[in-house]
Amino acid sequence: MWQTATDADIAEVAAAIGDRSRAKVLMALAGGGVLPASALAAEAGVSVSTISGHLARLREAKLLTVEHDGRHRYYRLASTDVARALEELARIARPLPVTSLRDSVRNQALMRARLCYDHLAGRLGVVLLAALVDGDVLTGTAAGGYRITAAGLGRLAAFGIEVEEFSRRRPAIRYCVDWGERRHHLAGALGAAVADRLFALGWLRRGRARRVVHLTDEGRTGLNETFGVPLDWDEAE
């Protein structure tokens, strides 16, 4: 018997996410990386013995998967859909109280530029998508869907991204409503390919805090010259 949307057991997933320690585990992995149980225990603020039960619950809810490397086990989000769901929940949730200067600096960095699983988010992700639309690399709107233009295919190829290489494996273009900016950032296979290319060029580097990324000076200039991203993107409101 086919399930409809009303048959989905949302309560089970919500209960799995609803524990604060498990929510911290999921958010620690929201940048698309893999972490061992010991690191996730530190992120959640619980003991290694306690984290095992939380990880089992998240796996039962199909929110996490585990990878084995010899005797070691590493955890990651089960899919990009989980990351998208976390982004949407963050958009409607009340912010956690900031209790230290370190928390404040990290939160500002996350809002400026971060990874949402495998693609760019934060203000940098939002202004990049806007620049791609303004520059006729993409066309359309969220309501009708974004599409890559004929000219855009050429410009992406010149940037080192061949759309045909990934468009058969997953949707080329998706978007997320950014929880900090309340506007769209680019997701899908194209979003992942752009982020990978930025890292490969050295235009983007990972920050010390999980999920945080930083645009290098070369990246700031390169994105401006290639796609028209404003040089002062991190200063504009």
UniProtKB/TrEMBL annotation:
Source organism of the structure: Nonomuraea roseoviolacea subsp. carminata
Alphabetical list of Pfam families matching this protein: HTH_20 (PF12840)
PROSITE patterns xrefs: HTH_ARSR_2
Protein name (database record): DNA-binding transcriptional ArsR family regulator
UniProt domain HTH arsR-type: residue ranges: 2-97
Superkingdom to which the source organism belongs: Bacteria
GO molecular function: DNA binding
SUPFAM superfamilies linked: Winged helix' DNA-binding domain (SSF46785)
CDD domains: HTH_ARSR
Record's keyword annotation contains DNA-binding: yes
SMART domains: HTH_ARSR
Keywords on record: DNA-binding
